[in-house]
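re: that chain from earlier
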Amino acid sequence: QVQLVESGGGGVQAGGSLRLSCAASGRTFSNSNMGWFRQAPGQEREFVAALRLHWLSTATDYADSVKGRFTISRDNAKRIMYLQMNSLKPEDTAMYYCAASSDYATNSRDAGIYEYWGQGTQVTVSS
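^ sequence. v structure.
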C-alpha cells in the first residue's frame, strides 16, 4: 500500500506562486507513474502533470494549460513530489490531488492508471 498526503495549497492572487507537496509512505516502486490532477467545482478531474519513472530515467508530462508555468519534480530521498506553480490564474482554482501507480505506463494522463490518491489540497487564485 502507498499513502499520499498533499500540502501547500492556499489562496493567492493572480500572478502569484504556490508549491504543492505530496509526501509518500509505504511501498516504493522502481517503475511507476506519479502525477497531479485537479478538479474544480462542477467539473471533471483533469490531468495537470506527471512523472514517468522507468528504472533510472524520469520523464515529465504537462497539460497544455499549465506548460511553461508549472514544474513537477521529486525528491527521491524524502519521497516527496512537488508541483511548483507560477503565474497562477483564476482558472487554476481547484482541488489538487496527487496520485501514484504501482507500474509504469506511458499514458500518464489517464487517471485510471493510478491506484493511489491523496485527499487533496485546495488552491484558490483570486483575480
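The longest strand covers residues 18-26.
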